[in-house]
């Protein structure tokens, strides 16, 4: 059995990853500053003797050195996330995402510990060749639009991780997460599915940004976590970049309609101009769909949960909170 450190392990994806690693018999260490994560996310596993967690920032180099020393590999998930948060705190986003990753890689390199860097489909930006392949050109908007600072900071992380492998033979890999959904994701940071489901269940209008023709593809967090673990366990993934996501595409307006159907809600759909939500200088992405050929070819992976299954699961969780 191995032992792993998960930075951001009390977050939505991190806590599911911790659960899955423990279920496989591994030891898990978590560091999380609870900026967007929460201890409640660890409720199902808190008593597990193979879990240790620390409420601390990844900028605490001494703590990080100690933790990295103890483990066989690191899943680096700690980051500033969520479009709204990034838009409101661009300085924090850039600092956390770049400096934090530098610390993780620098420390792991001393001991040649394997690191998986969680990146994002945001890096495909305005690319028009959908579905996106890992080798695709990346097209970002101007620096006057803060949204792009997230993609850009994550790209620096990717370059750095790949450089460590190339130059120092330290095992690293990069995973680009597409929209991930499931129990414990909160609508607080603007994520669309928990937001719409909450609105539908409370009888409030579903707030569709713009005309709603923009598309996304949503993967269940358990499908995502399975890919994250299996990629980490293999040596042929070192120095590689992988998309992780469900290629099933849906427009935001159709998503809203489907959530109304599945919840039986009589809420109306209200179109809200982007400017009203994010102010001026905001740019959205038209389509976002992963090409998962590389992932499926490497670990024999496909998404087991389709959009309806995901929505039903989220509706059930949100109903429980009412
Ligand atoms: N969105 C929306 N209403 C909401 C929240 C989000 O229409 O209440 C839209 C958002 O503008 C985007 C899509 O849903 O086009 C996905 O948004 P999310 O923030 O979940 O993820 P990301 O933009 O990172 O894909």
- Which ranges are low-confidence, i.e. pLDDT below 50, for 5 or more consecutive residues? none
SS class: alpha/beta
In the CATH hierarchy, the third-tier topology of the domain at 3-177 and 221-245 and 291-303 is known as: Rossmann fold
Q: State mean pLDDT (0 to 100 scale).
A: 94
- The termini sit apart by 40 Å
State the helix count.
11
Tell me the Rg in angstroms. 19 Å
Q: Identify the bound ligands.
A: uridine-5'-diphosphate
Strand content: 15-25%
Largest sheet: 7 strands, parallel
Q: Kindly report the spatial arrangement of strands forming the biggest sheet.
A: 3-2-1-4-5-6-11
Name of the CATH first level of the domain at 3-177 and 221-245 and 291-303? Alpha Beta
Q: Based on Cα principal axes, name the global outline.
A: globular
Taken in chain order, the helices and strands follow as EHEEHEHHEHEEHEEEHEEHEHHH
Comma- or semicolon-separated keywords:
322 residues; alpha/beta; Rossmann fold; seven-stranded parallel sheet; two-stranded parallel ribbon; 11 helices; 42% helix; globular; binds uridine-5'-diphosphate
